[in-house]
């Protein structure tokens, strides 16, 4: 039976994190009432002239540098001509033969294997308006028209829906790390066009390419590819011709449907944008932007493992978000207990952030303050239960850990003589539990330790209490 192979390429459209649109001063903020963030330029009024957004240029180049692209010292904008209701000028200002960035790639991890997916180009363009379709009417919101949009085009080197998902997730993480985009798919910051074809495994020539437009969720990309690959294979096996066309994904039906035949580049009648000067980037600008780049997430993960000796899982969690990773490192710089700090960040800190739905920048405990709390716990000045009590007080603005411990008298008791007195009292007051322990019931020992901790108001060293109990009671019966 003939086996088939899919070939997948992705065109990822990313809204850049700028305050104003690509060629005018209108706001790019999300959620404004329809058609309130518009002007003659982004509405395409006759006689209005575009002015280039320099910050959009910088962010696109930053993205290219993060992805290992070659930055073009000379690029230009072009007019892409087509007629559609969401295009107020009846053309889109984009880039064709002289994009800002060329080449580069994304290292995609699939299990234990890492494969580099090459990039063709990264170019900059303006977004179109948003069509709104209701039951009995349609409308257009031009707030999005003219928003800076970066398009990242991959080489056709992906072969499965899972690979495409991993590529998108890795790319999104890198772009957020670089600070070039929020990549918030719910707000339309990141959308994707998928190109996919199938061919027999032994055939070298690629099959006929189908494009699936405007996918705005990872699940949608994966589902559309699973369906479309199966559809194309079934068509080839049935002897049906596959036409080059554009299709759309219906997430409720979980099927793709034809939209129109696929255009070629010449259909758009590209020509240089006459109202904009070409872009000439001095080498010193590019060097400066490159010096401002953060580590790649995978590079930071590997460094955390080697530099701080934490497990790979910890390093992966801590490096997934740039700000979380920076918080962890800031804490480790003032404490030698990297693994303990990692545990606190991954459990208590991330829990609070999720409960309060805030970012680490708004977390009330500074990294150095968390490091001080960890130091108190690791040097057994306080026990783990007390440490969590202090953590909750700090969350409420209670001050530094050392001050809270001192003011509330929470310092752990590690004096053997003092603890021995409490242990003897616990043994004398709980003869039934003592008998249960000697009869081999392990739960009885935990109960007795709990009694010691209660009597000491949580300040006894639990390890010392356990050792003293074991010494006084002797080994349980086997």
Question: Can you tell me about this structure?
Answer:
- The protein has 478 residues and is α+β, with helices and mostly antiparallel strands.
- It folds into three domains: 4-287, no CATH class; 295-408, no CATH class; 416-473, Orthogonal Bundle (Arc Repressor Mutant, subunit A), CATH 1.10.10.
- The protein is built from 15 helices and 17 strands.
- It has helices spanning 54-66, 161-178, 218-237, 283-291, 297-308, 312-319, 322-332, 338-356, 367-378, 384-395, 401-408, 416-429, 431-438, 442-455, 462-473; strands at 4-15, 70-71, 74-75, 78-81, 91-94, 101-102, 105-110, 113-126, 130-133, 138-141, 148-154, 190-200, 210-215, 245-250, 255-261, 271-272, 279-280.
- Strand 13, helix 3 and strand 14 form a beta-alpha-beta unit.
- The radius of gyration is 30 Å and the shape is elongated.
- The mean pLDDT is 90.
